Amino acid sequence: MNLNLKIWRQKDANDKGKIVEYPIANVSEHMSFLEMLDVLNEELIEKGDEPVAFDHDCREGICGMCSLYINGEAHGPDRGVTTCQLHMRKFKDGDTIFIEPFRATALPVVKDLVVDRSAMDRIQQAGGFVSVNTSGNTQDANAIPIAKENADKAFDAATCIGCGACIATCKNSSAMLYVSAKVSQFSLLPQGQVEAKERVKNMVNKMDEEGFGNCTNTGACEVECPKGISLENISRMNREFLAANFSSKK
């Protein structure tokens, strides 16, 4: 395939940035999207030009680092996949493809297609963990009975890879789906109940502090999420947040 790539280029966080056009030829339909960008960068390097910076790591749809906005969609036109799992057979010969970084105030551009997602890490650090009792009297987790429905929902929430597609897709740049997944993966399990109230308050407050927008129930986040995280998690988080705040006022 011969394609016309229109890629966002930005030297650093202070640069204004702009769309730059790059024609690319002989692209195989079997290439992944990132492999196609690798080929482009090899051509740019051979010409003495600066290669396009983009984030990636596992290339197996697990790490969430490869987040790109492709033709106006987070991770591109396919569903249930990350950018590294997107293949060029989803495009046609002669197509023009717009490639941009995720856009959100809380996810500033570092360079080209790379954004700073440390705000999401700080939300996780605010409460997305379970303290471990190391006194010697700990109970074996496998010995604690858990209802299958709760275990399944907790596992589904835990599949969130923190890629930020929900944030980039939301018209308000809300992180509610991401945060609710991190809250739910613990709140549905007995090990997460000990710190449940403080966890949800700390994580929601940190989310607001970092500058993410509010949820207005558009539902685009669930559609674009590569792991299919359900909006049900947002409802659960809202209930837990209200309950935690009411109980703290008693």
Question: What attributes characterize this protein structure?
Answer:
five-stranded mixed β-sheet, Ubiquitin-like (UB roll), 7 strands, Fumarate Reductase Iron-sulfur Protein, Chain B, domain 2, alpha+beta, 250 residues, 8 helices
Report on the architecture of this protein.
By secondary structure, the chain is an alpha+beta fold. It has 2 domains: 3-111, Ubiquitin-like (UB roll); 118-248, Orthogonal Bundle (Fumarate Reductase Iron-sulfur Protein, Chain B, domain 2), CATH 1.10.1060.10. It has 8 helices and 7 strands; from the N terminus they run ββαβββββααααααα. The chain has helices spanning 33-47, 118-127, 148-158, 165-169, 176-187, 196-209, 220-224, 232-248, and strands spanning 3-9, 18-24, 69-70, 73-74, 96-100, 109-111, 114-115. A hairpin with an 8-residue loop joins strand 1 and strand 2 (18-24). The radius of gyration is 21 Å and the shape is elongated.
Mean pLDDT, to the nearest integer, reads 94
The name of the CATH superfamily of the largest domain reads Alpha-helical ferredoxin
Q: Which descriptor suits the 3D outline?
A: elongated
CATH topology of the largest domain: Fumarate Reductase Iron-sulfur Protein, Chain B, domain 2
Strand content: 5-15%
Strand order of the largest sheet: 2-1-5-3-4
Order of helices and strands: EEHEEEEEHHHHHHH
Number of domains: 2
Q: Report the total helices.
A: 8
Percentage of residues in helical conformation: 25-40%
Determine the N-to-C terminus distance: 66 Å
Class per helix and strand makeup: alpha+beta
User: Low-confidence parts lasting 5 or more residues at pLDDT below 50?
Assistant: none
List how many beta strands DSSP finds: 7
CATH architecture of the largest domain: Orthogonal Bundle
Please outline the major beta sheet: 5 strands, mixed
Please give the CATH class of the largest domain: Mainly Alpha
C-alpha-based Rg, rounded: 21 Å
